């Protein structure tokens, strides 16, 4: 593939023109639009820009950081400048993670098309690379960086500088001996394949070689039976058959002769260990593997809070990009705060704050376009409506006209249901969550203009079931009560709320006596946590028949997050997160929803679905079986630098393992740090954890750079559910703070789970 990339760079007309460079306007806002010269570098993997055609250039972005390319018409910012800048000449570079989009406007439609086609071609090439091809490309990138004078050769001085860049502290004599061994042409420099051999010598995995030799009779190869023994004995794949072992040999053995003889070489063995099959995350949990035919309230649902915000809660920017990012990462419940806007058009923003405003109809159009790109399972629009009667009618019209067949506007069979439908039954449907008159009235309601006066009496009863306002709004609303009466609910909008009627929570007893399965209560994180402590089992039972949504405290004006685990422990389905904010809490959320095809729905454990459940998240008692987890943290590979600007600095890595679950299971341990080695550190330390409720446990592996003067610096992390963890010798491929792959950075571990004694009450 790397060679295919080189072929494309020398033959594809778009890529050839991109390598020559072109002037384009970089657009950051309505007032910031500057001309820059953009050029694709010769490696085909990075784009640089300069202020002038021959000026000093600096890196703009790497192709591996790009998710996709959008045309100008799909850019919120470029659309707002359509009168000034032609949309046909514009395009957007969309990055993985939370990095802001890059909006560019070319000098002509043709030039814009050249860049759009060329960039998408490169993104597709990078996306389709396998592990070995990515490694080849990674090596090629390092060679380019190390070859300071760009003559296609590397002197020993350049190699020494490269070792520092690569996080390697090595004895000069030993480094020179490796250099000489790789310099087969005896030219005093390393070229192409010689550099590859130097890298292989540098990355020789003694711990993997030792493991390989312990199962290989001759130390040269693993026969089919030897490999089968390894899979069953060490990888705990006790049901593994000869056919599966043979399939893995065919997949990972690089030599044709090895495949023919049904043997695995050391290179093939290492390739297997670094693959998805050798990953800590069980490949069986990657596709949709759970039962998707149970009622919605039996699932954890990936949910977003104030989805329209891409910054903080007070002055942050509102943007449809928030919805695009949330939906593309598998989020299935998005929030829409709607207020009266100018010219009769409702707007979305965080009320009573300085956050910017976007049109409600633009939000609905964005949801229509992106709802099912990542997952086919239903999307929930959580409406917080603060609009007048007239603008509620406009909202209803936009929802009906823009969403069309996607909008669920009646019960599935047209009659009053007895339980919530399943994700499977609601495939590719968008549901509205919000205030409602009564389900019975809405089934009879025919869309016709109703007199506002007639509805006031109907709403008198309903007013006691108001959605609980979020704290930052409550005080402002109390002040406003004297000035203005509560807006009347418009039946056209009410009729679109089918299964998710918002009601205020009073007590678990009140809910049992007065509420129905199609009603949903919202809780602030503070209230939900208090209820878990005071009445944990009642909360669990409540969540077996009704949906609950939890939202962050109004004091989190910086858009920080809470730990969702505590709420999942009580069976709360919709734990809304500020998805624009990276960190430990979002790592846990992302890790939890990485399973089941990333579809945004995860089936709750059976004890959180049983209406008679005796489970209490604060006091888990039998029949929950404790398990003991042994983790041998063996080694690390190609860990990135924390501060890339410091050429001489080399990390001192340590590994921290955290368990999140019920309170009694929450724990953390860490290894010692390895001094001055981010390239191939070796720890060889074993950590031990005892877990009472593994069905709810999450594991987070964090690699830190030890700093005795201050807090340790973050290098990378990986988080996954206990139930998706594979035993045996496994690689953990690290992710950045933003959840982006740091390949080839990884840690190598040995995982062993032992059944323990029954958990006792404590």
TrEMBL record:
Locations listed in the record: Cytoplasm; Endoplasmic reticulum; Membrane; Nucleus
Protein name as annotated: Phosphoinositide phospholipase C
GO molecular function annotation: calcium ion binding; phosphatidylinositol phospholipase C activity; phosphatidylinositol-4,5-bisphosphate phospholipase C activity
Record domain EF-hand: where: 134-169, 170-205
Function: Hydrolyzes the phosphatidylinositol 4,5-bisphosphate (PIP2) to generate 2 second messenger molecules diacylglycerol (DAG) and inositol 1,4,5-trisphosphate (IP3). DAG mediates the activation of protein kinase C (PKC), while IP3 releases Ca(2+) from intracellular stores. Required for acrosome reaction in sperm during fertilization, probably by acting as an important enzyme for intracellular Ca(2+) mobilization in the zona pellucida-induced acrosome reaction. May play a role in cell growth. Modulates the liver regeneration in cooperation with nuclear PKC.
Segments forming domain C2: 609-736
UniProt xrefs under SUPFAM superfamilies: C2 domain (Calcium/lipid-binding domain, CaLB), EF-hand, PH domain-like, PLC-like phosphodiesterases
Transmembrane regions: none
Coiled-coil parts of chain: none
Disordered: annotated segments: 442-483
Record's catalysed reaction(s): a 1,2-diacyl-sn-glycero-3-phospho-(1D-myo-inositol-4,5-bisphosphate) + H2O = 1D-myo-inositol 1,4,5-trisphosphate + a 1,2-diacyl-sn-glycerol + H(+); a 1,2-diacyl-sn-glycero-3-phospho-(1D-myo-inositol) + H2O = 1D-myo-inositol 1-phosphate + a 1,2-diacyl-sn-glycerol + H(+)
GO cellular component assignments: endoplasmic reticulum; nucleus; plasma membrane
């Amino acid at each position: 593939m790397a060679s295919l990339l080189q072929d494309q760079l020398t033959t594809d007309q778009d890529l050839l023109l991109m390598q020559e460079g072109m002037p384009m306007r970089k657009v950051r806002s309505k007032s910031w639009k500057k001309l820059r010269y953009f050029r694709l570098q010769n490696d085909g993997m990075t784009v640089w820009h300069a202020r002038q055609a021959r000026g000093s250039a600096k890196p703009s972005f790497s192709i591996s950081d790009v998710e996709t390319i959008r045309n100008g018409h799909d850019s919120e910012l470029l659309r707002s400048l359509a009168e000034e800048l032609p949309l046909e000449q514009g395009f957007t570079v969309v990055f993985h993670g939370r990095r802001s989009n890059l909006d560019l406007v070319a000098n002509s439609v043709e030039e814009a098309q050249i860049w759009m086609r060329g960039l998408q071609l490169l993104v597709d090439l990078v996306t389709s690379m396998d592990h070995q091809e990515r490694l080849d490309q990674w090596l090629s990138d390092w060679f380019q960086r190390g070859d300071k004078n760009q003559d296609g050769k590397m002197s020993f001085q350049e190699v020494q500088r490269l070792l520092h860049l690569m996080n390697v502290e090595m004895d000069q004599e030993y480094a020179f001996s490796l250099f000489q061994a790789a310099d087969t042409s005896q030219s005093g420099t390393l070229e192409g394949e010689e550099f590859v051999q130097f890298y292989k010598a540098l990355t020789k995995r003694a711990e993997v070689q030792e493991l390989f030799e312990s199962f290989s009779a001759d130390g040269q190869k693993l026969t089919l039976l030897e490999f089968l023994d390894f899979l069953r004995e060490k990888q705990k794949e006790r049901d593994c058959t000869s056919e599966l072992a043979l399939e893995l040999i065919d997949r990972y053995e690089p030599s044709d002769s090895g495949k023919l003889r049904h043997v695995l070489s050391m290179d093939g063995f290492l390739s297997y260990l670094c693959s998805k099959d050798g990953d800590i995350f069980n490949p069986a949990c990657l596709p949709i593997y759970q039962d998707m035919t149970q009622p919605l309230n039996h699932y954890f649902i990936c949910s977003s809070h104030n989805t329209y915000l891409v910054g903080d809660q007070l002055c942050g920017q509102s943007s449809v990009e928030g919805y695009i990012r949330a939906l593309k990462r598998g989020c299935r419940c998005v929030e829409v705060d709607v207020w009266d806007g100018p010219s009769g058009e409702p707007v979305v923003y965080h009320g009573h704050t300085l956050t910017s405003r976007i049109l409600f109809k633009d939000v609905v159009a964005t949801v229509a376009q992106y709802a099912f790109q990542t997952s086919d399972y239903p999307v929930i629009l959580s409406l917080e409506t603060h609009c007048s009667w007239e603008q509620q009618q406009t909202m209803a019209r936009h929802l009906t006209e823009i969403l069309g067949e996607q909008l669920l506007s009646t019960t599935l069979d047209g009659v009053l249901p007895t339980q919530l439908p399943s994700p499977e039954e609601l495939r590719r449907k968008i549901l509205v969550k919000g205030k409602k008159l009564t389900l019975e009235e809405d089934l009879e309601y025919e869309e016709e203009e109703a007199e506002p006066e007639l509805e006031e009496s109907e709403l008198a009863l309903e007013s006691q079931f108001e959605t609980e306002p979020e704290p930052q709004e409550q005080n402002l609303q109390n002040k406003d009560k004297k000035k203005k009466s509560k807006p009347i609910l418009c039946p056209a909008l009410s009729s679109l709320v089918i299964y998710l009627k918002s009601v205020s929570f009073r007590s678990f007893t009140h809910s049992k006596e007065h509420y129905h399965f199609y009603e949903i209560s919202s809780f602030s994180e503070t209230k939900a946590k208090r209820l878990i402590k005071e009445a944990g089992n009642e909360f669990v039972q409540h969540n077996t028949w009704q949906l609950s949504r939890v939202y962050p405290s109004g004091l989190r004006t910086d858009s920080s997050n809470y730990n969702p685990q505590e709420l999942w422990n009580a069976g709360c389905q919709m734990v809304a997160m500020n998805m624009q904010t990276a960190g430990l809490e979002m790592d846990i959320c992302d890790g939890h929803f990485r399973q089941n095809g990333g579809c945004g729905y995860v089936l709750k454990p059976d004890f959180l679905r049983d209406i008679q459940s005796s489970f209490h998240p604060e006091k888990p008692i039998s029949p929950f079986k404790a398990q003991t987890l042994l983790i041998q943290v063996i080694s690390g590979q190609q860990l990135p630098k924390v501060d890339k600007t410091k050429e001489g600095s080399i990390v001192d890595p340590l590994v921290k393992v955290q368990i999140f679950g019920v309170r009694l299971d929450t724990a953390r341990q860490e290894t010692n740090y390895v001094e001055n080695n981010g390239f191939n550190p070796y720890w060889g330390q074993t950590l031990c954890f005892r877990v009472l409720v593994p069905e709810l446990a999450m594991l987070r592996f964090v690699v830190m750079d030890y700093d005795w003067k201050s807090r340790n610096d973050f290098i990378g992390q990986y988080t996954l559910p206990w139930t998706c963890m594979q035993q045996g010798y496994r690689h953990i491929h690290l992710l950045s703070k933003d959840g982006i792959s740091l390949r080839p950075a990884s840690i190598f571990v040995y995982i062993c789970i032992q059944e323990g004694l029954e958990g006792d009450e404590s």
